[in-house]
Automatic annotation (TrEMBL):
Superkingdom of the organism of origin: Bacteria
Name the record gives this protein: Basal-body rod modification protein FlgD
Region of interest: Disordered: 1-24
Coiled coil stretches, renumbered: none
InterPro entries registered for this protein in UniProt: FlgD, FlgD/Vpr_Ig-like
Biological process terms in GO annotation: bacterial-type flagellum organization
Matching Gene3D superfamilies: 2.30.30.910, 2.60.40.4070
Domain (FlgD/Vpr Ig-like): residue spans on this chain: 107-175
Entry's family note: Belongs to the FlgD family.
Task of the protein: Required for flagellar hook formation. May act as a scaffolding protein.
Keywords, sorted A to Z: Bacterial flagellum biogenesis, Cell projection, Cilium, Flagellum
Cross-referenced Pfam families: FlgD, FlgD_ig
Length: 224
């Protein structure tokens, strides 16, 4: 679905760039005709006893030429920028179906564990994984040994019952000898289900409806 949209968007942008260049060319041609008419009137009405130097005409022509070239260059740069943006979006559309790691809330489908990564405080000898639901309420606390930075949340409570499917966010509380040190962020993996362009920015839609920017992704993995 995304690739189809991208292809359609590419065609539309190309037509728009072509139309813009055509309009700019017409405007420049009209401006040049106006400039020549003004120059002719200036020559016809100059003081015959104190005529305008030919070098002055040359300066005016050179100035107009510089402005004309600047306008053309700006149009070319705008078109190139649009094409480069589409190329980047086309590449990002290949992320659809991949698992993206970010600080955004991760989606738990009610069965499969959620892969997480987190950093513990340097002096911590114990960590507590805090799990919050979509409303921000704490639904679980799990004691951890701060050794592995990659781990999984099973999505089950102490009785072995699965939590409801939905979005869950995570953080780690760090302790040393029972004393609280700090809270560190945890990143989770979620499936990318859509990529779209929003005012020139690429927006990735994750499973569960969460939306993040492409710059928010810190890692990608193939779910297979």
């Amino acid at each position: 679905m995304v690739n189809t949209i991208t292809a359609a968007t590419t065609g539309t942008t190309g037509a728009s760039s072509s139309s813009s260049s055509s309009e700019a060319g017409s405007a420049l041609s009209s401006d040049f005709d106006t400039f020549l008419k003004m120059l002719t009137v200036q020559m016809q009405n100059q003081d015959p006893l104190n005529p305008i130097e030919s070098s002055d005409y040359a300066v005016q022509l050179a100035t107009f030429s510089q402005v004309e070239q600047s306008v053309i260059t700006n149009d070319l740069l705008e078109g190139l920028s649009a094409q480069l943006g589409l190329m980047g979006f086309s590449e990002l559309s290949g992320w659809v179906g991949m698992d993206a790691r970010s600080e955004a809330a991760a989606y738990f489908d009610g069965a499969s564990p959620v892969t997480l990564t987190g950093e513990f405080a340097t002096a911590a000898d114990t960590g507590v994984l805090i799990v919050r639901d979509a409303d921000g309420a704490v639904v679980q606390k799990l004691t951890m040994v701060p050794t592995d930075h990659a781990f999984e949340w099973s999505g089950h409570d102490g009785n072995g019952d699965a939590f409801e499917a939905g979005l869950y966010s995570f953080e780690i509380e760090n302790y040393h000898n029972g004393d609280y040190l700090s809270t560190t962020t945890v990143e989770g993996y979620s499936r990318i289900v859509e990529a779209r362009s929003d005012d020139g920015d690429v927006v990735l839609v994750l499973a569960g409806g969460n939306e993040i920017g492409s710059d928010d992704v810190t890692a990608l993995r193939d779910p297979s």
